[in-house]
Amino acid sequence: MGTALVYGLVMLFVWFAIGAGVIMLATRLVAGFTPKFLTALIAAIIETIAAGVVSWGLSMVLGGGGLSSLLSLVIVFLVYAAVLNAFVKRPDGAQLGFGKASLITLVQIIIEIVLGVILFFVFGSVLLGMIGMGAAGAMH
What we know:
The protein is an all-alpha fold. The chain has one domain (2-108). Helix content is 86%, strand content 0%. It has 4 helices and no strands.
């Protein structure tokens, strides 16, 4: 039990660190500067918690379905942009502005989708290869 908890916490930190890196990359691409890692890490943690609460709340109110998922996607996008606008500051200390934060959020989501597809193909092919090799080995 203790080992599983440690592995879970390590994976959670890695998950948030990747999220912080994606925020830093998206901010660099859109706004032309890179926020500090700690700032991006805090924003990633708050984004994840807020998105989970919003998704859970909407699924409780609207039930699980297409409308709930679509509305959740839009609201989570707005929450992400609001969190970035609140926590990520320009080098001069000014806020990004909601429009620029929305553009950073859009780039962040695109990077996350591309990263997810790449990881799916890398780990999915390994997993399917292992399953296929197991089935082929059992037939002989």
